[in-house]
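Hey L., structure's done. Input below.
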Amino acid sequence: MNRKSIIFSAWLLTSAAHAFAQQEVPQESTFLNPERVTIKDGRDSMNITIKGRQGEPDFTFSRTVMYPSDEVTVTRERRTHPDFSIPFGINSVKDKEGPFEMKGTRTFVANGFECVVHRSSDDDVHISRKLTSYLANEADSVLHIPAFVEYEGKRYNVGSISRKGFAGNTDIKHLIIDEGVWAIGEEAFICCTNLQSVRIPASIEDIGWNIFGSCPNLKSITVDPANEEFDSRDNCNAIIETESNTLVAGCGGSAIPSSVTTIGDAAFAHCLNMESITIPEGVKRIEDLAFAGCYYLKSISLPQSLEYLRGYVFWDCTSLTSIVIPKNVKEIEYGYGNLFRGCNQLKSLTVEEGNSRYDSRSACNAIVETATNTLVTACAGTRIVEGIETIVEEAFTGIPIHSLHLPKTVSKIENYAFFNCEELVSITVDEENPVYSSPAGSNALLTKDGKTLVLGCGATVFPEGITHIGEGAFGGNRVPMGTLSLPEGIKVIGERAFSQCPNLWIITIPSSVDSIGEYAFSYCRHLNVASLKGGGKKLAFGAFFECEKLVAIELPQGMESIGNIAFSHCTNLYSVSLPSSLQEVGFESFEDCPCEKEVLQLVQKNKK
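Output:
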């Protein structure tokens, strides 16, 4: 399933360092600031150790690389040095089996900025810039980004501002970028909460998305009139791509010109001082995440010229209570996700009469594709009314619904249609529905034959006769009990069946289970113990991926292999009961687990 990985939250940037680019490395070599080490070598495995030099805070990273072209991430020791900042200094890399090739980037600090050299072999290197420690020297806290810096007698042109390069910096009030800088990376100034004004030079030709997210005091944005790619026409206090008339970055002080035809991806994302907005006539498209995270946005007026909406447009607009979709909207790309995910107060969702593609029949407070009777987008006030036949993937994802009643006309519910509906506690189905059922008191959605549980919730009682738990059945929803023992008779646990369950603490899987799907229990943040009495011969890819509180796992006799990243990033997994039948552990199955070394040793012993 195509899942979004974009997270909007207030946070302070933690700087990152990078490895020095080399063509060939002897057994013991020094590098500046290693972070990611890419290994390209013909051997099946090698052991590497990276340690901090004397005089720097100590840290050690050691692991066995199982495949060529593996990527190794070096992390610093936070428990003893929580304030340890980059650069790390010179470090050693040792490979006991001989030389290997390392690819990467080199960093240096000049004028208080961290500069990253992307192509060290070029005479005129392109540099990205990150702020390591900014101390305002001027009373008005002006951040001046120059066109070049000098380091060790060499002059470097400043080509771009790094992705998240100044994120979370509260010292900056005014931003001036010199002529010569040509790119601004995505989220470059996100969460600069005191930023008030920005001046963009004529040389800028590439701007990433959401560069000013969570900048509540930003009111003034000016683009140099000589810029050929972007403009701030009509003193709009926004950045507009000139050729396409697309507004790519706005702020609370923006006034959208009537010449704009498109609101771009994340253009107003996390605009925290916006309470209402009227989109002018002429705008035809609003792209993904355009108003996401505008927590205080209470009302928005969409123009009659609007034709296209893309998924997640209003994600987490938690104060929005009502919205009207104009009659000329002819395409809603719901495959990208629910337009109103996280809009917990939205109870009124209406499609204007006369729309030839969509409707909100019988005051259902949803968007329905008229020709196919398909419910494509829901809100907190949605009712599934008679006549609706299909509910698409993610239609209700992240929507705070408490009860669900399925009328007899619904014949198809796509996977993950009700993902992350944590508040759902009541599920019923019309007895005349030919495809689905819900036995009295079960609060579960089943196939008509009663064998597959399609959707569950916090009040579900498992009826007798279930053999399959469907794909995403409890995904992101609550389970009936934090300590959950699945009943005997279940044979298959589908892909992501319990992924992201917020209250699952202990899970016991019965011996009858012979198949567990990919990511079945992934991202269960509170899962502490898992006991598998059954599960088949192979544990699937990512089955318990990032269950960060998992401390103990018991695997059944008869299991022969563990799929790739099955327990990856289970950072508290100390106790593992492995069967003697286990012969194979997949790539990074236990990455970042404290038991990784012991597991690999035991598997090798089993093979012998």
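Helices lie at 596-607. The CA atoms of residues 31 and 398 lie 45 Å apart.

-- N.
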